Amino acid sequence: MNILINDTPQTLPSGATLADALALIRATPPFAAAVNRQFVPRSNYASHALQPDDRIEVIRPVTGG
Fold first, then answer.
1. Cβ contacts of 46 within 8 Å, gap of 6 or more
2. Which superfamily is assigned to 2-59 in CATH?
3. Which pTM was predicted?
4. In the 8-state DSSP scheme, what is residue 4?
5. Tens of pLDDT, residue by residue, the chain (65 residues)
């Protein structure tokens, strides 16, 4: 299935989860993730099933002043 991760097209197998998508881009903590603009708690990454054309945003914290 085709999805977007941070506006970059990616392909994952049918039945993939958010955890699979994050592994695909080698995301390393700290970060937060949202699917279709809905925040997904870290405890749900492995169980959150993705659908074709989902939009995933991986957001990293910014420090500074």
1. 17, 18, 19
2. Beta-grasp domain (3.10.20.30)
3. 0.93
4. E
5. 999 999 999 999 999 999 999 999 999 999 999 999 999 999 999 999 999 999 999 999 988 76
b/e per residue 21-57 (b: at least 16 CB within 10 A): bbeeeebeeeeebebeeeebeeeebeebebeeebebb
- Reference 17, options 42, 63, 61, 59; nearest CA is 42
DSSP summary character for residue 12? -
Q: Is 43 helix (H, G, I), strand (E, B) or coil?
A: helix
